[in-house]
Amino acid sequence: MSPREARVLVVEDEARIARLLCDNLEAEGYRVMHAADGEAGLRAARDGGIDLILLDVMLPRLDGFEVCRRLRAEGNRAPVLFLTARDLPPDRVRGLQAGGDDYLVKPFHLAELLARVAALLRRAAWSAEPAGGRVRVGAGWADLVTREAESVDGAKDTLPAKEFGILQLLIEARGAIVSRSRILDRVWGGEADPTPRTVDNFVVRLRRRFEPDPENPRYILTIRGTGYRLVPADRS
Ligand code: CA
């Protein structure tokens, strides 16, 4: 799923703020639903298919903390970004204790809100994985605990140590660039004479495993002159 197709539920009772949020999220390309009180928000979230919830704290019928607590108790793991007019430490703590992922104080800057929404969705895409240590990689997955991997053609085997080491660094970087020298240092350590080409060769192997079209990689990218980065796999 492209982040921009994500479904965002806005639970906000103040019409002016709700409209501002909905309009701007829609302008960003998100699919937006609105609920004007806590109970309606809970119902909408329970209907499923929600990728992120913008949850006002002070809501009629059921406050935002309680909505979040109930959703988490039911196993709903959609990221929750709390919005509140109050900026008191106990509120922040309560929000996190209720199972919220992030917290923004009103009045907020729209650009910051949109950036946080995007960041939460990215993080969710990283963690929306099958159980255990499995992480989706391109069109397959790798298990960071067992080293097992399923490649693009459905074949399963155990990743060789070097491939696993590189992949682990890329996954840990969560989309950031990992330099060749860092890979050499961490994966090859004191071993004799690896060259930057050595890393490239192993990256080619990883692409053959996980890229639908290894010649035109979409997930394991070379950043020229720097290193590599791993793009989170689309959710299917
Ligand atoms: Ca409110």
What can be said about this structure in brief?
The chain has 236 residues and is an alpha/beta fold.
For this structure, the CATH topology of the largest domain is Rossmann fold
Globally, the shape reads elongated
Major sheet attributes: 5 strands, parallel
Question: What ions, cofactors and ligands are bound?
Answer: calcium ion
What is the fold's blueprint, element by element?
Blueprint: E1 7-11, H1 15-27, E2 31-35, H2 38-46, E3 52-56, H3 64-73, E4 80-84, H4 89-97, E5 102-105, H5 110-127, E6 134-137, E7 140-143, E8 148-150, E9 156-158, H6 161-172, E10 178-179, H7 180-188, H8 196-210, E11 220-223, E12 227-230
Parallel strand pairs: 1-2, 1-3, 3-4, 4-5
Antiparallel strand pairs: 6-7, 7-8, 8-9, 10-12, 11-12
The chain binds calcium ion.
Calcium ion (CA) binds at residues 13-14, 56, 58-59.
Describe the protein in words:
The chain is an alpha/beta fold and 236 residues long. The protein has two domains: 7-128, Response regulator (Rossmann fold), CATH 3.40.50; 131-230, Arc Repressor Mutant, subunit A (Orthogonal Bundle). It has eight helices and twelve strands. The chain has helices at 15-27, 38-46, 64-73, 89-97, 110-127, 161-172, 180-188, 196-210; strands at residues 7-11, 31-35, 52-56, 80-84, 102-105, 134-137, 140-143, 148-150, 156-158, 178-179, 220-223, 227-230. It has a five-stranded parallel β-sheet, with helices on both faces. Helix 6 crosses helix 7. The model has no long low-confidence stretch (mean pLDDT 87). Calcium ion binds at residues 13-14, 56, 58-59.
